[in-house]
Specification:
The protein is an alpha/beta fold. It has 3 domains: 131 residues, 3-Layer(aba) Sandwich (Rossmann fold); 153 residues, no CATH class; 256 residues, no CATH class. It is built from 23 helices and 9 strands. It has a 5-stranded parallel beta sheet with strand order 2-1-3-4-5, with helices on both faces. Strands 6-7 form a two-stranded antiparallel sheet. Strands 8-9 form a two-stranded antiparallel sheet. Strand 4, helix 3 and strand 5 form a beta-alpha-beta unit.
């Protein structure tokens, strides 16, 4: 689109003097390299240079013979002695020069030439068709290009200044005070009156300045001690003065207002419970503009002072004036801010999983497991269709529905929920030091060449987490997430185990790796009391494993649809099939292990707490479940019998809930094994895909 900027800038000195160096002629800035020659550079090479300096009348005539009208960079003529203004003007007109300067004026003339070249580069960067427009200009090209670029840059500056001033006035002087007043007002009539006043202003902001605000924030962030321009004194301002707005949209079955209200309640809850260890930004109650009919909600979010990000920005700002690599410093600063703001949008849009926080303290394993049992629903027909598997018995759909009450996703309840740590909660680690040097920052975030900032490295470092800040509500969820991710990428069993005759050996090894990883993690974050909490961990692991299994079948269905519609090639289809096969086999191997663990811990906990009479009463049922788990249905009739017995145990009101849960996970284990069995039976590659069966 635009012309890229290189950190290395060069000028060309065309001279008639032997062994001439530019430093003998003028003061060249340190970041400028000089090429010296006695022959003019070719026309196609000229755009590489920031300026051309010509010394000697003969060289001036030689250069202008071929390049006089087509030169696209500023050309300076270094006159040996002072020259009158009239004579200088004649030379400029005759030879299409940028300036004529004697030895006393050449330094400033070079700076002016570099500035003019920078204006044209700025124009090429900002205007999507700038290069095309300049290429169509008649000679003299550079002079006309400079006029066009100066007009465009000046207009852009005026527009940007006007937008920023309008934004500052509308946002800081009207909306922020109004939103805070709206948030704190308890009287319904007064609240409605404030809403009527605010509504047109917020609609204007959302329509006109939604995109401009990001660029505005890049310009104002980091320019003060707090990291953002202050609103000023607002009566009744809670806690601080630094605010940024968020536009919340519907997601995952929640309305925009529900999501925004949930954020508001969470922030208020953790702000009043500092003992929980979360440093939480204040979020106002949501405002829903009438024009958007409930599809969007508007909130203000406080930016906390003293964050590591702001300290880094302050360091970059102070370093800018003394750095010779200003472009790279600017690039890092802007990239950091853009990524931080992008993460803030991710946070408020609720894209990350929700995690229950029960009674504001570490819950019992039973509470967590009950939560997952109660809140998750299965989608058997969807799963069967997407997996492209034809189960043998007619009871399979019913059995799947009953057996996978874990599957799908968590739905929030009225209690407060804790989300993964995010941008505004004080857990960003920019670098290894409290106050890294600019050199350290540039090297840490630059690509291999050191010439440009790598946005991926910025994202990675912004997502680093201060593990010391986490509490129980995050701890086991993080373990489950990491273990499943680890299993997806590397598998939890060695390939050398694959040739062993008994899968129990592999299962035992995989199970041990799971707990080794989990125990190492909870110890590292100072939560040793969670080491023995295996029932809770297994429950979360099972949920995440089955959810990922479901996601991979969805991925496969999309692949089939795209291949059927000829949107992807046969090669891409085969690559995806291989990836899907690897993961589906892993999850079909891993899920039964976790099912076994959940059933084992459930059984152990129940028998430990039950009376002798109750334990004796359920032992026959537990033994039957164990026998059913060991069976592998070979025929449709055997499958129906197996399904019927599981369903009977699950629906027996005389049995305690833990025994029913054991039956559920055992049936689930049986079902996943059957999925793996049917998957392995498919010999023809295209039969995996329903579109090609």
């Amino acid at each position: 689109m635009g012309e890229s900027i290189s950190l290395e800038k060069r000028i060309f000195l065309l001279t008639d003097k032997p062994n001439r160096h530019a430093a003998e002629l003028c003061d060249v800035p340190r970041h400028i390299e000089v090429d010296t020659g006695h022959c003019p550079p070719a026309l196609d090479i000229l755009p590489r240079y920031e300026a051309i300096i010509i010394e000697g009348q003969s060289k001036l005539e030689e250069f202008c013979t071929t390049n006089q009208s087509n030169v696209c960079v500023p050309v300076l003529f270094a006159h040996e002695k002072p020259i009158s203004s009239a004579d200088a003007h004649d030379l400029v007109s005759t030879y299409n020069l940028f300036k004529v300067a004697d030895e006393d004026e050449i330094d400033q003339a070079l700076l002016d030439a570099l500035s003019a070249r920078a204006i044209i580069r700025s124009y090429l960067e900002q205007h999507p068709r700038g290069k095309e427009i300049l290429s169509r200009q008649d000679p003299p090209k550079f002079r006309k290009a400079l006029v066009i670029a100066e007009e465009f840059v000046a207009l852009s500056r005026r527009v940007r200044t006007n937008i920023e001033e309008d934004y500052r006035r509308l946002y800081h002087d009207i909306i922020v005070p109004g939103m805070l007043k709206y948030d704190q007002e308890k009287d319904p009539a007064k609240r409605e009156e404030i809403a009527r006043t605010l509504d047109p202003h917020i609609e204007t902001l959302m329509e006109t300045y939604g995109n401009a605000s990001l660029n505005y924030m890049v310009r104002v962030l980091g320019e003060g001690e707090s990291g953002e321009a202050t609103v000023g004194k607002v009566e009744g301002t809670p806690r601080g003065k630094n605010w940024i707005f968020r536009i919340v949209e519907p997601r995952a079955g929640f309305t925009a207002e529900q999501l925004a209200e949930q954020r508001h309640l969470d922030a208020a809850f953790f702000s009043t419970h500092p003992q929980l260890g979360f440093s939480t930004a204040y979020i106002t109650a949501p405002f829903v503009p009438k024009k958007y009919n409930g599809e969007k909600a508007f909130v203000l979010m406080e930016y906390i002072e003293g964050e590591p990000l702001w300290r880094v920005l302050d360091e970059l700002n102070s370093a800018h004036s003394r750095s010779v690599r200003k472009e790279l410093v600017d690039e890092l600063r802007n990239t950091l801010i853009h990524q931080a703001l992008a993460m803030g949008r991710v946070w408020v849009h609720n894209k990350r999983p929700l995690v229950p926080a029960i009674a504001n303290a570490k819950p019992s394993p039973k509470q967590v497991q009950d939560y997952y049992y109660r809140k998750l629903k299965g989608t058997p027909e969807n799963f069967e269709r997407r997996a492209g598997l034809n189960f043998l018995d007619p009871q399979s759909a019913t059995l799947w529905q009953e057996a996978t009450r874990f599957v799908y996703r968590i739905r929030t309840e009225d209690s407060h929920v804790v989300r993964n740590r995010d941008l505004s909660h004080g857990n960003i680690l920019i670098g290894p030091n409290e106050k890294p040097t600019v050199t350290q920052l540039l090297s840490q975030f630059s690509d291999e060449t050191g010439a440009h900032i790598d946005p991926e490295k910025v994202r990675t470092h912004l997502h680093n987490i201060d593990l010391k800040e986490c509490r129980w509500a995050h701890s086991l969820e993080d373990v489950a997430r990491l273990v499943v991710q680890y299993g997806t990428n590397f598998l939890l069993y060695d390939t050398s185990d694959a040739n062993k005759p008994k899968s129990t050996i592999r299962a035992k090894a995989a199970r041990q790796r799971v707990y080794d990883l989990a125990h190492a993690y909870v110890r590292a974050i100072g939560q040793e009391d969670l080491v023995d909490d295996k029932l809770t961990l297994s429950s979360m692991l099972l949920f995440r494993t089955l959810r990922d299994l479901n996601l991979f079948t969805g991925y496969w269905q999309r692949t089939c649809d795209q291949y059927g519609a000829q949107q992807i090639s046969k090669t891409e289809y085969e690559d995806r099939r291989e990836r899907f096969t690897r993961n589906i086999k892993h999850y079909c191997f891993f899920a039964p292990i976790i099912c076994t663990e959940v059933a084992r811990f459930e059984r152990k906990d129940y028998l430990k707490a039950a009376s002798a009479e109750d334990a004796a009463a359920v032992r026959p049922v537990l033994e039957e479940i164990q026998r059913l788990s060991a069976k592998q249905a070979q025929t449709s009739q055997e499958g129906e019998q197996l399904s019927s017995r599981y369903l009977a145990i699950m629906n027996d009101p005389a049995l305690p809930e833990p025994i029913q849960n054991i039956a559920r996970v055992s049936a689930l284990r049986s079902m996943v094994r059957r999925i793996a069995h049917h998957f392995d039976q498919e010999k023809e590659p295209l039969k995996y895909c329903p579109s090609h069966s």
